[in-house]
Amino acid sequence: MNPISTRADATILHADLDSFYASVEQRDDPSLRGRPVIVGGGIVLAASYEAKRMGVYTPMPEFAARRLCPSAVVVAPRFEAYSEASRAVFEVFHDTTPLVEGLSIDEAFLDVAGLRRIAGTPAEIAARLRAEVLRRAGLPITVGVARTKFLAKVASGVAKPDGLLVVDPGREIEFLHPLPIGRLWGVGPVTERKLHARGIHTVGEVAALGEAHLVAMLGVGSGRHLDALANNRDPRPVVTGKRRGSIGSQQALGRGRKAPDTIEALLLGIVDRVARRMRAAGRVGRTVTVRLRFDDFTRVTRSRSLAHPTSATEPIRDLALAVLRDAAPMIEQRGITLIGLSVGNLESVGDSTEQLLLPFGRKDQSGLDGVVDGLRSRFGHAALTRASLLGRRSGLEVPRLPD
DNA sequence: TCTGGGGTCCTAGGACCC
DNA sequence: TCTGGGGTCCTAGGACCC
Questions:
Q1: How many of the other CB atoms lie within 10 Å of CB of A172?
Q2: Which of A222, A264, A373, A398 is deepest in the core (most CB within 10 A)?
Q3: How far is the CA of A390 from the C1' of B2 (A)?
Q4: Distance, CA of A330 to CA of A318 (rounded, Å)
């Protein structure tokens, strides 16, 4: 009998654009190529590798970066251009494999298992992916290849910039255990401090600690999570079709007193932006969270939930204002330096027609005409059109909509 | 070094229901 | 009259990620 290999192949790619915003600027303005570039808006949003070599990092205050790197060209961010570049890059991802899990505007996991016959080994696919991203989007990208998501991500981090690194399944521990704990997904400044205080500096040392110890130190969630990663257990599959759970916006205000009217006006602007984005995305939500940051950089959040999900501006605005007024004494006393709002508990408009009709007490199709106006005011016309289409498709006689 | 804007996930207590 | 345990939702806060 032939021995059956139980060890899975390294088929997960982590693709991560290098200094994304700065690279887009260098791509679009040839005079910036080869020079230190900082994309800044108060803080450093991105720095080219030329700037990083001088010690510039994200999110360093802009003035500090200028002092550190006087020869740097500082450019204002162009978020539209970055979204467009991201779209082009994700097109390449999707042309490579249907199994794409986006993590942010500039990185994604790709599962290329099963593509060997038609597309070659994962290393070959990764090399081609890098070349294609450069050709079609004009951007450098680093790819890590491994058996698990975590190892693939670490690999791309190690290979940066403009690199490709495959972690051979036979050498995973050898690769993983010497790494500093900061490389572990979920270890930020706080956890790092706690571990350093106990003399733990490498992933191998975390692995040796044992789950019980980690749980006692960091809580059940983080403890188990870190124990698993450090011991090279990461069974998470690449998941497609994930949707956001919240949509929000915020604005830093700088120090100094602001009149209550000014703060309200800012919040209204934010509500408007968020509601607009929700409608554009075809999402409705129920939980409205107002976020405040004070002069001393402490933060609070205050949230309330609506009875029914919505993407209409008015109910969100009313609730947000009520929450803000409750917080007025706090703001008066502590000074405000940031205001933000997000809407969570998101659902997709059109997930089910019933969900749309439920708030109106209509589970069947009798007398639907009368609810059209109500639906429009609640969800907006575009969402209603989609719902109507879906309703018809699922056999409901949803009334035709006036234009 | 004094800190932007977009998110995710986890924890924990209290209300409420069965 | 005094009392369980489980499940779910809501709210607040914290850590983390890019």
A1: 17
A2: A398
A3: 51
A4: 20
Of the candidates A191, A236, A189, the residue with the CA atom closest to the CA atom of residue A209:
A191
> Containing H/E element for A157?
helix A149-159
Catalytic residue among A107, A124, A332, A347: A107
Strand C bases within 7 angstroms of protein beta carbons: 9-18
Closest by CA to A39, choosing from A24, A29, A55, is A24
pLDDT tens, residue by residue, A157-175: 999 999 999 999 999 999 9
Contact (CB, 8 A) for A12 and A169: no
Q: CA distances (Å), A255 to each of A122, A329, A337, A359, A384, in order?
A: 51, 17, 6, 43, 43
Q: Which domains does chain A have, with CATH numbers?
A: 1-168 (3.30.70.270), 177-230 (1.10.150.20), 246-389 (3.30.1490.100)
Q: Are residues A50 and A79 in contact, defined by beta-carbon separation less than 8 angstroms?
A: no
Per residue in A168-218, pLDDT (tens digit) is: 999 999 999 999 999 999 999 999 999 999 999 999 999 999 999 999 889
